Amino acid sequence: MGARAIAGISLLAALIAWPGAARAQTKIGQYLDEAPLRTWNTAPFTLAAGLGRGGTSFTRAADPSAALSNPALLPLLPRVSAAVQGFAESASMAKAGPIGTGVFLTDGNVVASSTGLDFAGVAVRAGRWGFALSVCREESYLRPTAYYEESAPAGQNGYLLQWTQTGDLRIVNAAIGGILGHGFSVGLGVNEVFGSLRRSLVEQVTGPGGYEISDTVTQDFRGLFLNGGLLWSPSSRFRAAAVFRTPYARKAAGQSALDYRAPDGNTDIPIDASSKDTARQPLMLGLGGSYDLSPSLTLAVEASYFGWSAYSLDFFGEAQDRGFRNVVRVNAGLEFRQKIPLFGIDFDMPSRVGLIYDPQPVKDPASAYGDITVGTGLAAGRFRLDLAALLGREWGSGNGLIARRIAISLIFQL
Amino acid sequence: MFRRALVLAPLLAAAALQAPVYAAALSTEGGLNGAYHSYKELETDLFALQQKNPAIAKVFDLGESLEHRHIYGLKISDNVAIEENQAQILILGCHHAREWISVEVPFHFGKYLVESYATDPEVKRLVDQSEIWIVPMVNPDGLEYTIHTYRYWRKNRRDNGGGQFGVDINRNYDYKWGFDNAGSSGDPGSEIYRGPAPFSEPETRAVRDLFLKKSFGAVVSYHSFAQDILYPWGYTDQPSDRDAEMQGIAVEMANRIKAVNGRTYAPGQSGKDLYLTNGDANDWTFGLSGIPSFTIELPPIDELLGGFFNREEDIAPIFQENLPALLYLVDRTVQNFRPYLRNPFDLRSVFFPGARAAGILY
Question: Which ipTM score applies to this complex?
Fold first, then answer.
């Protein structure tokens, strides 16, 4: 049974992505429902200065985001520092939910984009100790909105299908760092995770004898993990660091509402569900080093291990098969510092460039992003403005996914 | 090719039925699909039935879907571990992913047989004198897609390229496959896409391999919706040469269904009274072996009353009304069974080695 139930409804074609349209490929992509936008390896969060340096942040940070990457840096910050950051980012994907999987047909990859603020934090230094409190948006679950409609004159049946997914994950971090002596400092942070994901699909046959199916799933996330690090500065030119982020159970309180309504038949058939699920998030370990090639030029290199093979996910009471692989991300960057006189003021104007090799944990298809980053900034007196951009391309899945990010951070320091 | 000619025997009156008691908790509590079985829930519950009475219930792995899910068959018979020269009946469910109720009726039939065997002499007789094979979920990949992504998905999950997915596996059997573009389609984007070739899909091959390994005397394939009992042919609106016999059986089943809750299931020839279909399971089993082959379209009757949706609390009444029809068909098959001599030159197990390779003794 079924062929006549959909008679007259052609395959869906129209897609609205915000903001852009899509072109090219249609092979199976790497996105699962819970995947963060662009990359699974979102840790640690960095401000624009670190992003411009290829995402390196274990050994060089001069703002409160050090609490998220390596709290051992906190005692090296200025006496007081505060920062906020705005961003714009976009990522393409070959499939998402019903997009590219047989329901919504597209000409190629589709794009999800967002803008906003993604960091606010403050750090203080007292003697050999540093403290920080911050909040950041570490993951986005945004997908393009998909919409298709066939209108019909009065008395005839029309059709509508719409799918949306939104959500993000934020972290509140409280961290402390202290100088141990002999060039060593150590730090520890406590992170509370909170966020949500909401997915909704509505299908309507409008007009006489019509019906509507709505399928909505919402999840609220909570979790707690520790992060920490060790910094070693044997000389003024060289630093080395080791960092960690503990694995943790991200709890999800879920609600599902599946409903069929046919008003002309006085029919309303709901299937509701609630759940308390868990996603085991991986261990992250990092090693990094930075070296001043000259008084104005610094090279930083880092490697981060993500233990994704331990990732597990329950979704509404059922274990989901993932079978992820462990990956090692490599970040490298250069920072060139110079002073530029502008309007009678000597501004510090760093120039930054970096590369990131970012393999993804999905085994099939196995893929990785290669990112290039650039950044710059202006600093004078108590204020600093940093700007960075990232352009990434994925290979391995055959879809050639593209990722972009721009970050602008404003830092106040005493 | 006909395996044997069935003589229409006088129909026996159905024995009075005990009302089924659903005492055992199922694994379907909660979840996105409510009281309906997901793939993992069905897997859990089928093996629970086997564990409940391993003397009469055994789960077989008939093959893997495209996304590597098992297609399970539950065999119910006395001496279940051995092959006996008995009447055999095949009950299929969920060729089409969105027809969630079509998993439940076959599964609950198996549950009923297992749980009533020790207490109901009529059930015991039927189980002892037959092999009842139940494949509740022929299309597990499609079903999971309806639960997680798009509720009204119909086909399996083959990537056809160009962003199009799915073969209608009830158009993929090879009797009159691709006969015309009314009963199926060659367009990969169509809801009734027949696939690139007959039996191109692992799901249909799993059913085929089971069917060819056995000597079934009747087949029922559950679908929804429409409240019909359909018999071949589907590929044409012209009747088969056994139309009267098939209609008679369908009418008997419909009468038994109506006696429970008063709901009418309309008997009719598939291609004439519903719509043309080619490459479907019933035309294949009937065309290959001549056995009674039925598609039962479960409630509701139309979209105004729910379409592919049934209330969770309607699962039990829908099963209960289909139960006497199923028992009638099993009994009829038992009564019409004539023990046969196994052909020593039967090379089917050579040409279909999958079952042997899996170490499965049917």
Answer: 0.90
